[in-house]
Amino acid sequence: MKRLPCTIASIEYYNHDTRKVMISLPRNEAVDFKAGQYLEMVLPGKNCPFSIASSPDVKDYLELHIRPTPDSEDSAIIEDMLNHSDRTVEIDFPKGDCFLESAPDTPLILLAASTGVTQMKSIIEYLLPRGLTHPIYLYWGVLADKDLYLSARFEAIMAQEEKFHYIPVVSEPATSPEWEGRIGLVGEVALQDFEDLSDVTVYVSGSPGMVYATLDTYVARGLPDNRMFSDVFSYAPRPAP
Ligand SMILES: Cc1cc2nc3c(=O)[nH]c(=O)nc-3n(C[C@H](O)[C@H](O)[C@H](O)COP(=O)(O)OP(=O)(O)OC[C@H]3O[C@@H](n4cnc5c(N)ncnc54)[C@H](O)[C@@H]3O)c2cc1C
To answer: What is the whole-number distance in angstroms between the Cα of residue 49 and the centre of ligand 1?
Structure first.
């Protein structure tokens, strides 16, 4: 892990609130990380983690997707920096032990809540060019359909790669009157599609509450507990009973 002074190469809005932020590393620093890892932006007195959305194969920049968190002081500092900064930022990079270096020898279920999809995007874009022998199922859970800012990207992949399946899920249908897709909590919706979890691998990105609820339900349905992976297991370990 290194602390690096970086440049913000570009910022653009994906939708009403989520921004794509491209970070350039200093000259002579290699873009060297594993698919699924994150970086931390260094703020005064605190670091803020952001998953890397690009594949490790992309060597020119690191792609982040940043969404403001209501009532969060840290998020307000980051938004202000993105709005007004001189476009430099310090990062600690790479971080995280929830990554993939090769496709597992089982079907892969990726469960993402909100911007947790960034971690999955990196994993998918890294695995696809290496060829899939087992299917990948991406379930992306959001509150409202307007939050599905990467749907066109995933639908395009699905049209080209028969082993890739994209299932968007909206949890608050009242916010999305035209939504005709799946409704519910992302982990529960995915569970409806699999009879047998004894031979799958699951990656989950979301809040600690969502991840541990998913772990308990999936293990109760036959998932070996060493086949679920999440950053939460490191940064918010479950207290011993
Ligand atoms: C490992 C990790 C990766 C993150 N990646 C992103 C990202 O790609 N884009 C983004 O906008 N925000 C991301 N966040 C959240 C972001 O760091 C916070 O919103 C930011 O630090 C502002 O602080 P806060 O007070 O809102 O959150 P804090 O109180 O510091 O809490 C961070 C919360 O982020 C949530 N979280 C975990 N993973 C993700 C994720 N991939 N996306 C969103 N929330 C997540 C967890 O529920 C955790 O409780 C990530 C957080 C973590 C822990």
So the answer is: 6
